[in-house]
Specification:
Distance between the termini: 25 Å
Order of helices and strands: HEEEHEEHEHHHEHEHEE
Number of domains: 1
CATH architecture: 3-Layer(aba) Sandwich
Radius of gyration: 18 Å
Shape: globular
CATH topology: Rossmann fold
Strand content: 25-35%
CATH superfamily: P-loop containing nucleotide triphosphate hydrolases
Strand order of the largest sheet: 6-7-8-3-9-10
Largest sheet: 6 strands, mixed
């Protein structure tokens, strides 16, 4: 697997290093009847060249953290910094296009497009013409996640696990410094979970990017550089 990973990475541009700094971060969901606290006075730094697992029971804030980092939500208090840039000063579209790429739990693929076309779609949305090199890299990435033979297959014909791999390859095709993966191995077996864990770690180290993996899977959590848990409204490193 390591040989395959290295071969695919040969065509991928090294990313720009960027750390995430949470400074006195607090967030609550507020309705007319109640306030539900998720984070309180969180101070934590996620560095580049590393993969972090984010664990905790459902409802503790894993998805909320990703929404805060993507500028889908704003902190109730405190600051999120991308290096020295306050996320509050950046438009959500800019963050999603130039800073963060997401691996979604529910895939968000275009069903009538092929696996390869889905990977290249983000470039087309930005109005950028897709180069031959980018097309070749998309195919390399599908090889990397083990489904290179399905590059011309419409994703509606793929299994859940295969669609999840397309989603992973699509996120890896971007040239952004931060990757957020929401349950990236939820539909995969043990063998492929270990392969994806190895892949994410290899990509983080080779491209100098920051990778955060929200997961309930202890097997995947063992494959990262640093394990974190959300508990009592804080983020704590446990390994």
């Amino acid at each position: 697997m390591i040989h395959v990973v290295q071969a695919a990475l040969n065509g991928v541009v090294k990313g720009v290093e960027m750390k995430i700094v949470l400074r006195n971060l607090s967030f609550s969901y507020v309705s007319a009847s109640r306030e539900r606290k998720i984070f309180e006075n969180v101070n934590f730094t996620f560095g580049s060249d590393r993969v972090y697992s984010i664990m905790g029971p459902s409802g503790t804030g894993k998805t909320t953290l990703f929404k805060l980092l993507s500028n889908d939500l704003e902190p109730s208090e405190g600051t999120i910094l991308f290096d020295d840039r306050d996320s509050h000063t950046l438009k959500p579209q800019y963050v999603r296009s130039h800073i963060i790429s997401r691996i979604y739990q529910d895939y968000l693929l275009v069903p009538y497009m092929t696996a390869g076309e889905n990977i290249l779609l983000s470039r087309e949305i930005l109005g950028t013409k897709t180069s031959l090199e980018e097309k070749e890299n998309a195919h390399h990435l599908l090889d990397l996640v083990g489904i290179g033979n399905l590059k011309d297959t419409p994703v509606r014909l793929l299994s859940g696990g295969e669609q999840q791999r397309v989603c992973i390859a699509r996120a890896l095709a971007s040239q952004v410094p931060i990757l957020l993966a929401d349950e990236p191995t939820g539909a995969l077996d043990k063998e492929n979970t270990l392969k994806i864990g190895e892949l994410l770690r290899k990509v983080a180290h080779e491209r100098s990017i920051t990778v955060l993996v929200a997961t309930h899977d202890p097997l995947l959590a063992e494959e990262v550089d640093e394990q974190c848990v959300i508990d009592n409204f804080r983020i704590n490193s446990v390994a």
